Amino acid sequence: MDDIFCKIARGDIPSCKVYEDEYVLAFLDLGQVTKGHTLVIPKKHSTNILDCDEEYLGHVFKAAQKVANALIKTYGATGVNILSNANESAGQSVFHFHVHIIPRYGNDEYLELGFKEHDTSNMDLKAMAEEIAKNI
After folding, report:
1. Beta-ladder partners of 57
2. Which of 32, 38, 70, 82 is the most buried (most CB within 10 A)?
3. How far is Cα 24 from Cα 59, in angstroms, rounded to an integer?
């Protein structure tokens, strides 16, 4: 499989990297739901959580915990949503396992009943990624 996340993991497509080790890559989502919205992916392809190798699954969630704590430290988030969609009927649109870490700031104006992506054209995602990475 050669999806967009495989290409990002290989470095063929640039990303705003927050964290990386031999198993996983964490980078800012281009469709920020809230400031700091980050994706964590395994470097080894799997379609979703249902078929992810257990070793990689553990590394994904260890990285998710590091990123979540960094978002709280960096931006003063008061909580985080950690979620993953498995299969199209559950809303999965990129068929490479990934976990969303969505920081929450109390009374989030961006989050209502569903997650909505927001215009990031006025955000410096590279600077945000560097700022978060300092706290991992």
Report:
1. none
2. 38
3. 7
67/91 Cα distance (integer angstroms): 23
Of 133, 129, 102, 97, which is closest to residue 115 (Cα–Cα)? Answer: 102
Beta bridge partners of 81: 102
Backbone dihedral angles phi then psi of residue 42, each to the nearest 5 degrees:
-75, 145
Backbone φ and ψ for 108, nearest 5 degrees, come out as -65, 120
- pLDDT digit string (tens) for 60-108? 999 999 999 999 999 999 999 999 999 999 999 999 999 999 999 987 6
Q: How many Cα atoms occupy the beta-carbon half-sphere of 91 within 13 Å?
A: 9
CA distance 49 to 133: 25
Please list the active-site residues. 98
The first and second tokens of residue 16, run together, are: 């705003």
Residue 55: partners with Cβ closer than 8 Å, 6 or more residues away: 23
DSSP letter string over 42-106?
A: ESS--SSTTT--HHHHHHHHHHHHHHHHHHHHHH--SEEEEE---SGGGT--S-S--EEEEEE-S
CA–CA separation, 114 vs 109, rounded Å?
12
